[in-house]
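User: Structure please.
Assistant: Input sequence and predicted structure:
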Amino acid sequence: MKLPLYLKLLLLVTIGLAVWAQFSGDETGDVVVTNAATPEPQKPARVSPPSRVADKQTEAIADLFPVYSTAVKAAPVPSVQGALFPFRATGLWLSEGAKIIMITDGTGNWLLCDACHKAGFVRPGGLITPAWRLQAIAENHVIIESLPGHVQNSVSLNSLNIKSSIK
C-alpha cells in the first residue's frame, strides 16, 4: 500500500515531535555523576509536602460538585377574598314550625334547617362542605362561613317564595 506524500510528511513530523518531547523537558533535578568504583550511600529523596493554597478562587475552580444553598421561599398563601362564594338558595319551605332552605353550588344540593333533627339536614354550626360551615339561619338570609379564611358570606332569601306545608 502506497501512502500519499502529505501522510508521509505528517508521520515524519509526528515522530519528530515525539522524540523531541521525550528528550526535552524541564529537568529541575541536579545531574549527579557517580563513579562506579566508589558507590556512595544514597540519601532518601527529599519530598516536600504539597502546598495548599487557601485562595477561594482556586477552591471554587477545583470543586466539581458544588453544593449551593438558597433560601427557601414560603409558598404563597391563597387569597381568601379572591375565593368565589359558590352557594345560592334554590328553595324554601316551612314545615311544622321549621324553616327548611335548599342551597346548591351547581353540583350538589344541601338542606339547611335550624329545628330539624333528622339525618340529611345541616344545622347551624355544621359543615356544608369541608371548606364551608353554616353559621346561622336568620329571617331573610343564611350566613355561611369560609373555614380557611373565616370570612362570612350571606345568602339572601328575599327572592324565594315561601310555601307553607301546614294544613
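The first helix runs from residue 5 to 23.
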